[in-house]
Write a structure and sequence with these properties.
The chain is built from five helices and 15 strands. A hairpin with a 2-residue loop joins strand 1 and strand 2. The longest helix is centred in the middle third of the chain and has 13 residues. The protein starts with 9 loop residues before the first strand and ends with a strand. A seven-stranded mixed beta sheet has the order 6-7-8-12-11-14-15, with no helix packed on it. It has a five-stranded mixed beta sheet with strand order 1-2-3-4-5, with no helix packed on it.
């Protein structure tokens, strides 16, 4: 099992019960990047969901990587959803998720929508304008936030959670995708461009400070 899945996701208590939240799995990334090997990523991610055993799973968009829906990608998505068919799955549709409904419609446990408002918490992808709703906190993806540590001529890029006021941006749960520099990634979210400062947290929950735009 990929050891980083737990670090790159959240477990919340909502009215749905124990709720697992992660962002940007980008299933089928191998197809877009010309890889000829099968990573088994979608199966390992589904196994992680089953191990957590949540009452609900919320995916913050970009379930898949290719914009279309090829036969091979459809197979990968069917494998993923088949493994978690006993979990209540809510998908906040992302910019890569065109035609995702064609697969999701085979699974009555899967709901696809632009966003979800649950117990005052807003769950969305982040590529569109903010919906006109009242909420206490919002969780989103899309920006793939990461930060590069530099010391003694050595640099290391790590994924981070980014806090901007009542918005929490999750890193991509896919360990094969590195992420964007947080300053550039946040610019991809239309309603976050007005913030001048962002707080950063390592996947283990350690606060590492703020960066300015």
């Amino acid at each position: 099992m990929f050891p980083s899945f737990g670090d790159l996701s959240l477990i919340l208590r909502t009215s749905l019960g124990k709720t697992l939240v992660f962002a940007d799995p980008h299933i089928g990334f191998e197809l877009s990047r010309g890889l000829r090997i099968r990573t088994g990523f979608e199966e390992e991610l589904a196994s992680f969901v089953l191990e957590v055993n949540p009452d609900a799973l919320i995916v913050l968009g970009d379930v898949k990587e290719p914009l279309g829906l090829s036969f091979r990608l459809r197979e990968m998505l069917l494998r993923f959803f088949s493994q978690i068919r006993d979990v209540n799955v809510l998908i906040a549709k992302g910019n890569h998720d065109g035609r995702l409904e064609e697969v999701a419609e085979n699974f009555p446990n899967v709901e696809v929508s632009d966003h979800f408002l649950i117990d005052g918490k807003l769950f969305l992808h982040g590529h569109r304008k903010l919906p006109p709703l009242d909420f206490e906190e919002a969780f989103l993806g899309h920006a793939h936030p990461a930060y590069t540590f530099r010391s003694g001529g050595v640099s290391r890029k790590v994924k981070v959670f980014a806090r901007l006021g009542k918005f929490l941006v999750l890193p991509t749960v896919n360990p094969f995708i590195e992420g964007f520099d947080v300053r550039e990634g946040i610019k991809l979210v239309p309603f976050l461009r007005g913030f001048g400062e962002v707080g950063l947290f390592l996947p283990q929950g350690v606060y590492i400070g703020t960066v300015n735009f």
